[in-house]
């Protein structure tokens, strides 16, 4: 049984510390909190990057559960701890089953567990596919803004990959003040490309939406490029496609050949995390035997420790840090609690005395 509590009470016993009640935050509540608050979510994500860069976080490597009987599928655990104003620990558990798409349901599903900083008790389980998409899009929107400074503001947006993440990134770009003269779309699935084009046209974001026949055509005709595919190995290998020095948001991490990265300025979210798991930056490190091609992190750019030159392509490759999920998840939890709408599972923690 669940009840709605305006302000969470704590469960106390003489022999135990205060135990928080356990709440479930479904996707509908998550969406209501985040919808229309793109600028606020970008602020949350940038604050998390700064805390992470300053050492106020713990973000161990993600753990990948691979399934021999379903080789295209995986489930990933992202544990993390974030200090500062968030002061929360937790875990994102996110699955990727590409075969879902053919069945008409999203590829990814996720939950986020938030743990109380004092007791370690889980205090909430949140539907997290929306949180994950929002933090990814907010990170991309932040990078687009920060990496465009010092060069002409991009006016032609291109998406390689036309799924849910592309839609969220478009929403976050539009919600943080971007305007484009033209938007291009390319996807190996023509139905996905056509559907995304229809969404863009119906959103009224731009008069001209072009479905490009090839990734090359899209890249050469865009100055802000989003890679949001499910590619598991590089498929874009000619640096000359990027000779016009675009800003590239390499969200899917495995699209670009090392030669493309070596011709560009490279910004990542976290060097150690990004240069693993056969990402394009990891392959580039293996090829060169060095990490010298990495110019810095997004936090370095946010805090003005790194300036991005305007005379080269710039590629942002975000591995996706668990601390971002925690920050956005805690923001959602606090907003739901403030509204008095937390769905608390009564008596979830039952054995609270050591000796009965």
Plain-language structure description:
This protein has 356 residues and is an alpha/beta fold. The protein has helices spanning 27-34, 38-53, 129-148, 164-175, 190-203, 215-220, 258-262, 271-274, 280-288, 298-302, 322-338; strands at residues 2-5, 11-13, 16-19, 22-25, 57-58, 63-66, 74-82, 88-96, 108-115, 122-127, 156-160, 182-186, 209-211, 224-227, 247-250, 265-268, 294-297, 314-317, 342-345. Strands 1, 4, 5, 6, 7, 8, 9, 10 and 19 form a 9-stranded mixed beta sheet that branches. Strand 11 (156-160), helix 4 and strand 12 (182-186) form a beta-alpha-beta unit. Helix 2 packs across helix 3 (129-148). The longest helix is centred in the middle third of the chain and has 20 residues, at 129-148. It is globular. The mean pLDDT is 94.
Q: Strand percentage, roughly? A: 25-35%
Order of helices and strands: EEEEHHEEEEEEHEHEHEHEEHEHHEHEHE
| Residues in helix, % | 25-40%
Query: What is the oligomer described by this structure?
Result: single chain
pLDDT averaged over residues? 94
Number of E-state strands:
19
The poorly predicted ranges are none
| End-to-end gap | 23 Å
Query: Which geometry do the CA atoms define?
Result: globular
Short account of what is shown:
The protein is α/β, with parallel strands linked by helices.
Quick tags:
33% helix; 11 helices; globular; eight-stranded parallel β-sheet; alpha/beta; 356 residues
Explain the layout of strands and helices.
Layout (H helix, E strand, L loop, with lengths): L1 E4 L5 E3 L2 E4 L2 E4 L1 H8 L3 H16 L3 E2 L4 E4 L7 E9 L5 E9 L11 E8 L6 E6 L1 H20 L7 E5 L3 H12 L6 E5 L3 H14 L5 E3 L3 H6 L3 E4 L19 E4 L7 H5 L2 E4 L2 H4 L5 H9 L5 E4 H5 L11 E4 L4 H17 L3 E4 L11
Parallel strand pairs: 4-10, 11-12, 11-14, 12-13, 14-15, 15-18, 16-17, 16-18
Antiparallel strand pairs: 1-19, 2-3, 4-19, 5-7, 6-7, 7-8, 8-9, 9-10
Helix pairs in contact: 1-3, 1-11, 2-3, 2-11, 3-4, 3-11
């Amino acid at each position: 049984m669940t009840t709605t509590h305006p302000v969470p009470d704590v469960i106390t016993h003489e022999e135990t510390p205060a135990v928080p009640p356990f709440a479930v935050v479904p996707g509908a509540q998550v969406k209501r909190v985040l919808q229309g608050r793109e600028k606020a979510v970008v602020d949350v994500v940038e604050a998390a990057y700064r805390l992470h860069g300053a050492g106020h976080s713990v973000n161990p490597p993600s753990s990948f559960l691979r399934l021999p009987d379903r080789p295209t599928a995986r489930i990933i655990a992202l544990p993390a701890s974030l200090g500062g104003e968030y002061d929360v620990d937790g875990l994102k558990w996110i699955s990727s089953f590409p075969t879902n798409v053919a069945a008409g349901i999203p590829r990814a599903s996720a939950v986020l567990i938030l743990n109380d900083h004092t007791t370690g008790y889980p205090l909430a389980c949140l539907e997290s596919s929306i949180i994950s998409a929002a933090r990814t899009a907010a990170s991309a929107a932040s990078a687009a803004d920060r990496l465009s400074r010092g060069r002409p503001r991009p006016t032609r947006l291109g998406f390689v990959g036309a799924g849910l993440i592309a839609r969220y990134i478009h929403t976050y770009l539009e919600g943080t003040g971007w305007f484009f003269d033209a938007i291009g779309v390319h996807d190996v699935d023509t139905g996905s490309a056509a559907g995304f084009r229809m969404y863009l046209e119906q959103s009224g974001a731009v008069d001209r939406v072009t479905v490009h026949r090839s990734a090359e055509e899209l890249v050469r005709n865009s100055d802000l490029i989003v890679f949001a595919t499910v590619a598991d190995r590089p498929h874009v290998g000619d640096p000359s496609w990027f000779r016009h020095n675009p800003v590239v948001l390499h969200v899917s991490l495995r699209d670009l050949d090392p030669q493309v990265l070596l011709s560009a300025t490279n910004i990542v979210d976290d060097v150690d995390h990004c240069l693993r798991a056969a990402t394009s930056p990891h392959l580039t490190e293996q090829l060169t035997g060095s990490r010298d091609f990495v110019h810095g992190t997004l936090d370095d750019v946010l805090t003005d420790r790194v300036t991005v030159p305007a005379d080269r392509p710039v590629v942002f490759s975000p591995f996706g840090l668990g601390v971002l999920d925690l920050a956005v998840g805690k923001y959602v939890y606090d907003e739901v609690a403030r509204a008095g709408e937390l769905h608390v599972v009564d008596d979830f923690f039952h054995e609270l005395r050591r000796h009965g």
